[in-house]
Amino acid sequence: MDATVQARLDEFISRRGLRRTAQREVIVSEVFSKDEHFSADELFERVRTSAANTSRATVYRTLGLLVAAGLLREIDLGDEQTTYDPNFLDKPAHNHLVCIDCGRVVEFEDAQLENLTACMTRRLGFEPIRQSLKIEATCEQLRNQGRCANLIAARLSGKRLRKKR
Amino acid sequence: MDATVQARLDEFISRRGLRRTAQREVIVSEVFSKDEHFSADELFERVRTSAANTSRATVYRTLGLLVAAGLLREIDLGDEQTTYDPNFLDKPAHNHLVCIDCGRVVEFEDAQLENLTACMTRRLGFEPIRQSLKIEATCEQLRNQGRCANLIAARLSGKRLRKKR
DNA sequence: GTTATTGCAAATGATTTGCACAAGG
DNA sequence: CCTTGTGCAAATCATTTGCAATAAC
């Protein structure tokens, strides 16, 4: 876990008079063990392997704390569950490309884009706070080569690729 | 209701062997009676005033049909319910500015923006299918004048302005 | 008459919450 | 000890679905 994250977390814990519990330790270290997006349920499964106790409720409650502490971001990829992004302290990107073939998510940022939208927002009489662009796209690779590594991986892991409806 | 909408709907009904029922007539005419966004529940309430029978289930099922027919678009404004947009045949905008003070939603389109994102998507190795930009912003009017007509209206109508969580 | 449609109530599924018990400081 | 945190099960809430009754065509 990054030192900045650790420091911010410590500050948050003492400022709010929170307590350090075994469950939180496990959840937090699991959250920041990778840079990848995850759902509450995926995290719950990961946490279970290290700490067989720890309830779903605690996972949800801890996620809420981390979001409140500004260490984790909730993003909405258009499916039925909230996605969490543990890796944004150093990159303020809120733009996502979601591949509708394989479910792969690419995060990116673009200064030109930010400028453009900020101008437009002001022109409409508002002050921009945050923005998120979601691009749904298909794999060139899948179309050209007939296969896509991400698709195969996604199927193997039983990932739900589209909205159920 | 627009003639194009009517024609497309007729075509869809016959192509799929659907039936014309009183409930559908009411729901469809209510959907296209205004250009504004609405939630399933708001529509259900509106429909109730004309046709006191008509269940929620039928409203949901009819919304699904209209989306399948390409006459209605589902959009995700980040709250807990799906928003529907009845007015997009003539304007292919999928970009929304949501005012976090008053909940007002402004739709807009911008060719420069579309170009920019399409380029970026291709550069990343994907083919863009659709995109949506959501900007959350605050009212200049509220900040400068201390009040905002939309906010007052929203409060009067009991609209939920933010995510409940 | 078939087959699509409806209303109702029950099912879903992610997330939240009330509560009694457990544990940090 | 005094609060905060936890697990559990029950509650939410938008949306979906099974089913028997009903209505198009």
Write the CATH fold name of the largest domain in chain A.
Answer: Arc Repressor Mutant, subunit A
Distance between the termini of chain A: 37 Å
Instruction: List low-pLDDT spans of chain A.
Output: none
The CATH class label of the largest domain in chain A is Mainly Alpha
CATH architecture name of the largest domain in chain A: Orthogonal Bundle
Secondary structure tally, helices of chain A: 7
The string of secondary-structure elements of chain A, in order, is HHEHHEEEEHEHH
Radius of gyration of chain A: 18 Å
Features:
DNA-binding; alpha+beta; Dna Ligase, domain 1; 2 domains; Arc Repressor Mutant, subunit A; 165 residues; homodimer; 6 strands
List the helices and strands and how they pair.
The structure is a homodimer of 165-residue chains.
Chain A: H1 3-15, H2 22-31, E1 38-39, H3 40-50, H4 56-68, E2 73-75, E3 83-85, E4 95-99, E5 105-108, H5 111-123, E6 126-139, H6 140-145, H7 149-156
Parallel strand pairs in A: 4-6
Antiparallel strand pairs in A: 1-3, 2-3, 4-5
Helix pairs in contact in A: 2-3, 2-4, 3-4
Chain B binds a DNA duplex (25 and 25 nucleotides) through residues 17-24, 39-41, 53-58, 60-61, 80-82, 164-165.
